[in-house]
Amino acid sequence: MPPLFEEIDSQASPLGEISLRRRRMPVFGDRDIYEVKLGDEFLMSSMFVEAEEALSTLGLAAIQGDKLSVVVGGLGLGYTAVAALKDERITELLVIDALDTVIRWHKDELVPLGKTLNADARNRYVLGSFFDLATSPSTGFDPNSEGKKFDAILLDIDHSPTEFLNAANASFYTTENLALMAEQLKPKGVFAMWSQNLPEASFEALLKTVFKSVESHVVSFYNPFQSGESTNSVYVCVKQGE
User: Fold this and answer.
1) Where are the domains of the chain?
2) In CATH, 49-238 is 3.40.50.150
3) What is the pLDDT of residues 99-129, one digit of tens each?
């Protein structure tokens, strides 16, 4: 019988100790649950992935056309990236993560979705700070093509627009820096972002200083720990056309 708990890997990072764990909870069925922790803080669990997947489906649904080039900011356990690749219009997907450890977990297939991402030729991992690359449009997200523009940027790094994985990320959430990121979108391109909280009116107002349209979606999912529904949010923003 597999152990009920196993720490698969733990490594130092610029943000602190990051660890990948696998556990089984018989009360929730006979399946492996994968967790990522940063220090004592839980970052992600494979028990709750509906909103991460919705980030892709809702964001990509707002794009017209085909042969899409898409950026995902934040690899996590890979659910946003894999959901994006289900859209057959995508021809390339760049997944940006600042932690080499997280990218290696996927490349070495220590997490279940690593095999799926590695097998898809459209997928490419990029090691770097999403926020640094987002605010440097002259170089941009693609190390192989400076200044390249994309059809969509899907962001899932911070807990919310006001609760940050790293305090340094706070400076991104301004009109100036969001506008720098938007320069890397094609006309009518989409920026979509996950949040653990319900939509925040102040952030919607900020997004409207940069984007033509802003729509917030509430994603509900069953939380067995609370024996009820939990909610996350996805903001979907569309850039002005030509």
Assistant:
1) 5-44, 49-238
2) yes
3) 999 999 999 999 999 999 999 999 999 999 9
